Amino acid sequence: MLPNIFLGETLADSLPTDDLGLLRESSLLPYVDGNTLIILRRGYFDITNNFCAAKLIEYFLNWNLWKLENYGTPWVYQPIKQTRSDLLGEHGSQAIREGIGVLEKLGILEKWDNSENGQDKTWQYKIDTDVLEQLLKQAKFRGKC
User: Fold this and answer.
1) Mind listing the pLDDT tens digit for each residue in 75-98?
2) Predicted confidence band at 35 (pLDDT cuts at 50, 70, 90)?
3) H/E segment holding residue 38
4) Which string of b and e fits 61-96 if b means at least 16 CB within 10 Å?
5) Strands (DSSP E) found in 78-136
6) Is 145 strand, coil or helix?
7) 68 φ/ψ angles, rounded to the nearest 5 degrees
8) Architecture in CATH for domain 5-141
9) In the chain, where are the structural domains located?
10) Helices and strands, counts by H and E, the chain
11) pTM here?
12) Contact, 132 vs 108, CB < 8 A?
């Protein structure tokens, strides 16, 4: 069965969001009914100008919400290989690394290493929703969203 991929403003309009369209309900997980759900929001693309980075915002937001609800921390331990698989292989490992770099440069994504384990090179990620909201407000003010 093919996954549902929503582009633009379709199902996304009916999802529970705050005033800026950010997900605020943890009922929306990266996996819905066993199908991977990939959302590309126009506002996220407008602030990143990168399709992969825009999808990663939604991806990490959902994981951050799930982790916070289930483990009390928003930090997500996610290998690039798993992220690539979750994005259905649409973006390669290098594109995902570049997308993460775009989000870091904009201040949207924070990274934390597992310094307690010197052998583990996998990063943990968290979306800075305050920065994201500010960038969305600025983009909306400029008429981009």
Assistant:
1) 998 899 999 999 988 999 999 999
2) low
3) strand 38-40
4) bbbbbbbeeeeeebbbebeeeebbebbeeebeeebb
5) 109-112, 124-127
6) coil
7) -60, -45
8) Orthogonal Bundle (1.10)
9) 5-141
10) 5, 7
11) 0.73
12) yes
